[in-house]
Structure formats: structure tokens, C-alpha cells
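Hi everyone, sorry if this is the wrong subforum. Our group has a chain we'd like a structural model of before ordering constructs, and none of us has done structure prediction before. Sequence below.
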Amino acid sequence: MSPPERRSTPPVGEPGERGAGTVLVLGLGLLVVLAAVLIALLAQSAAMASRAAAAADLAALAAADVARGIAPGVPCAVAMDVAHRNGASVLSCAEGAGYAVQVRTELAVRTPLGAATGLARAGPPP
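Answer:
Right subforum, don't worry. Here is the predicted structure as C-alpha cells:
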């Protein structure tokens, strides 16, 4: 008597692992999509933080110029105007000793991870 013949795939109707590869590929595909979305959110947050920091830098520099008498106006009013032109609002503006100005800004556009803020100080070295 000869040994029974072995089949590489189970016959129709018998339990097996048919379709397990499809489930694995779908799971890995979902993982790749989630990773791409997370990377996009982090990149957007980094870009927004950079924009908020740039708005704070420009506002602080303009306010320091006014404090030194190089440009006309009131330092914090000029800082608010410059920040507004850069898509941000001024959260705080403080004039310090020696023509120093510190400005904190927040972008008008919010990200899913929160508001982007920037902080800058302009003036002579401390």
C-alpha cells in the first residue's frame, strides 16, 4: 500500500489559512497610513511653530527699533501690527531696561495638536 498523497492547499470546504496573507497586508497597509498621517501632523506642527517664532522675532525687532527711537510709534503697538501682518496675535509684550522688548505671539491658525506660539526678545545683550 502506498502512502497517502499530500496536498499543498486544503480542499474547498476544509479549514485552512486561506486569506491570512490578505489580512496581514491590510494590517500593514493601515499601519503605514497611520504612520504617514502622524508624520504629516508633526511636520505641520513644526512648520507652524517656525512661523510663530518668525512672527515673534519680527515683532520684537520692530518694537526694539521703536524703543531705540529708530522708528516712530509705540513699541508694543508696532509689535502687534507686525505680528498681525504675519498671521499672529501678540499674547504679551514687555518693554525692559535698555531698549529691550520681549514679545510672545500665537498664530491665528490652530493645528490639531494645539496652538503654535513663539517667544522672542530683541534689544542689546543682557
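For your construct planning: The mean pLDDT is 88. The radius of gyration is 30 Å.
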